[in-house]
Amino acid sequence: MLSVGADVVLVERQLVAGELCCPDCGQRLAPWGHATPRFVRGDRLVRRIRPRRAICSAALGCGRSHVLLPRFCLGRRVDVVAVIWAALLARAAGQGWRAITAAAGRPASTVRGWLSRFTEHAEPIRVAFAWVERRAAAGGDLDRLAPTGGAVGDAVAQIGAACAAVRRRWGVGVLTVSPAQMVAACSGGWLLAARALRPAGWLINTSPHL
After folding, report:
1. Backbone angles phi and psi of 87, in degrees to 5
2. What are phi and psi of 205, to 5 degrees?
3. Which of 87, 140, 164, 185 is the most exposed place for a label (fewest CB within 10 A)?
4. CB of 145 closer than 8 Å to CB of 154
5. What percent of the chain is modeled with pLDDT above 90?
6. pLDDT tens digits, 142-161
7. Where are the alpha helices (DSSP H) in 107-203?
8. d(Cα 202, Cα 121) in Å, to the nearest integer?
């Protein structure tokens, strides 16, 4: 899976032009049909999307196919990333799941699922985003983060630092991307997915394709 921009026309143009890179090997991606349609739940409505699928087609590529997921989504989650990220920020700030559920306007079981998933993997998430920050900083200064006293708070702080480093490096090209969508893009859409975090490919497409 690869997190891409929300403009379907622009993403298609980039894909056909060979401007999108495989998150596994870095080689050029080519069109490869479409993924199964899915529903995405925003603040007030549910919409149906059918993500594009691409395949690594370069001679020296890995040959794997990938779903091109719009950056307002996360892998295997119905709700948009803005709602999920707001819940994680609230948890890092010390709010309980009942207050977070009320603010999110989602079923309690759904919200508790986000929070427990993130809490369970907070440390590997923090480590992965520390890698993203170092990659984006390219040898420059890194933010000095004070311990928050909790794994969730530390992970959320590190995510913020990593996304800030990406913005500093690529400037104007990512200034219009919301904080939540930046999180989705920098995680390749896998922030809460049921799979091991693999940071190695996350930044391959960050600058040109946010």
Report:
1. -65, -40
2. -105, 5
3. 140
4. yes
5. 61
6. 888 999 999 999 999 999 99
7. 108-120, 122-137, 151-170, 179-186
8. 17
